From TrEMBL:
Protein name: Phosphoglycerate kinase
Pathway entry: Carbohydrate degradation; glycolysis; pyruvate from D-glyceraldehyde 3-phosphate: step 2/5
Organism: Candidatus Jorgensenbacteria bacterium CG11_big_fil_rev_8_21_14_0_20_38_23
Binding-site positions, ATP: 218, 325, 356-359
Protein origin, superkingdom: Bacteria
Database matches in InterPro entries: Phosphoglycerate_kinase, Phosphoglycerate_kinase_N, Phosphoglycerate_kinase_sf
Length: 409
């Protein structure tokens, strides 16, 4: 179990500087509407309120070619000119300043090497700092201890509030915890508590809804919950892949071909039996087709899925039911969203977890609102994690979370 920020005596830390890892991995230009920004504000506010200075750390996109990461040395032969500076975090300065109502000091890449961190922070009038995109630095993605040590100089303790990237073994998530007392932030705590609830204290009927693009990401969740859940409602690419595995014609539909050939096909073929043997795994009974592709679930399927959602007490949803971005193929996802929202509103016993980048976007579009917090009402939790959530829900240990335990505070 990680140490939670909410459990520590913050007054003891007043006057100190916190290195806060968050997830600001948002496309340039889309900062303003980003749900990811709003959900990390509570931790920042709590720290500032307790007179703790905050240095915000995040990565954004892929500013450097992967192969460049393999060069040796932390800085010397790192060609800064090859970095895509469009992915600088500087564009968050006005937004964070406005949302938090205090001024913020940005630390550019070049300066970060020249400054004496402790001296610099104590001399500045600002209490909030934003570090440049961590992937501008060599060693972030290779979990390099030298980068971790360099970053650790900027704070007295460390908080991870970036659940969505905690499945990665990166310097600012894992190696850094070797150098500083480390804690889980408020958002991280919400993620862990809500996901643990559906993993350990779920109520039945328990329904898992899986759609989206790749079935390979989701197989772990199916395996983990196979003996726990009552229904798996399948849509999107995973449904197509199951159809293909059963030898049904799928035209040019999106399928995971590798899943049909790799050893994992064993799992698929174990599901690839008569429906009566596996009543839990529910595939669409009708579909909508465009351009010779299966692009959404059909009307009868919507009806059948909604009936099951209505009687469920626990629901996990990842992956849109169809290609909802394309006109005419959003209905399945929209209807599922509505059924889930109705359940959240009506059934006091319901517990619902939704996650995934596109799933959250589709959910917001269908509902016509942009949730500003992870808990939309007491029964509906929107995870900030896509891959991280799926790995967590597959029972895997996430390096960014396990590294928060056992560090002296
Ligand atoms: P998330 O980001 O929520 O984890 P995924 O990344 O797995 O979800 O998948 C989302 C994408 O899957 C969407 O862009 C959607 O258009 C696509 N998708 C869903 N169903 C289909 C389909 N039947 N055919 C093609 N693409 C689909
Ligand atoms: Mg996605």
């Amino acid at each position: 179990m990680p140490r939670y920020l909410s459990n520590i005596n913050l007054r003891k830390l007043s006057g100190k500087t916190c290195l806060l890892r968050v997830d600001l991995n948002i496309e340039p230009g889309e900062e303003k509407n980003a749900y990811r920004v709003d959900v990390v504000l509570p931790t920042i506010k709590l720290l500032l309120k307790n007179k703790i200075k905050v240095v915000i750390l995040s990565h954004r996109g892929r500013p450097v070619l992967k192969s460049t990461q393999l060069l040796k040395g932390l800085k010397s032969d790192w060609d800064f000119n090859k970095i895509n500076r469009r992915l600088s975090l500087k564009s968050f300065v006005p937004l964070l300043t406005r949302k938090l109502g205090i001024s913020l000091c940005f630390i550019p890449y070049e300066h970060s090497w020249l400054l004496d961190p402790k001296k610099f922070i104590s001399q500045r009038k600002e209490r909030l700092f934003l570090f440049e995109n961590l992937r501008f630095y060599r060693g972030e993605e290779t979990n390099d201890w030298r980068l971790a040590k360099f970053l650790a100089n900027w704070g007295d303790f460390y908080i991870n509030d970036a659940f969505a990237v905690s499945h990665r073994n990166n310097a600012s998530l894992t190696a850094i915890t070797k150098y500083l007392p480390s804690y889980a932030g408020l958002l991280m705590e919400k993620e862990i508590r809500n996901l643990d609830k559906v993993m350990k204290n779920y109520k039945r009927p328990f329904t898992i809804i899986l759609g989206g693009a790749k079935i390979s990401d989701k197989i772990g969740v199916i395996k983990y919950f196979w003996n726990k859940a009552d229904y798996f409602l399948i849509g999107g690419g995973p449904a197509n892949t199951f159809f293909a595995a059963q030898g049904l014609p799928v035209g040019d539909s999106l399928i995971n071909r590798s899943m049909l050939e790799s050893p994992t096909s064993k799992i698929l073929s174990s599901f690839n039996v008569r429906k009566s043997d596996f009543p839990k795994l529910i595939l669409p009974v009708d579909v909508k087709i465009g351009d010779n592709k299966i692009l959404d679930i059909g009307e009868r399927t919507i009806e059948e899925y909604n009936k099951i959602i209505k009687k469920s007490k626990t629901i996990i949803w990842n992956g849109p039911m169809g290609m909802f971005e394309k006109k005419g193929f959003a209905k399945g996802t929209k209807k599922i969203t509505q059924a889930i929202c109705q359940l959240a509103d009506k059934n006091k016993k319901a517990q619902i977890v939704i996650g995934g980048g596109e799933t959250t976007a589709a959910f917001q579009a269908a509902r016509g609102v942009i949730p500003r917090q992870v808990c939309v009402g007491p029964r509906l939790f929107i995870s900030t994690g896509g891959g991280a959530m799926l790995e967590y829900l597959s029972g895997k240990k996430l390096p960014g979370i396990t590294s928060l335990a056992g560090v002296r505070g």
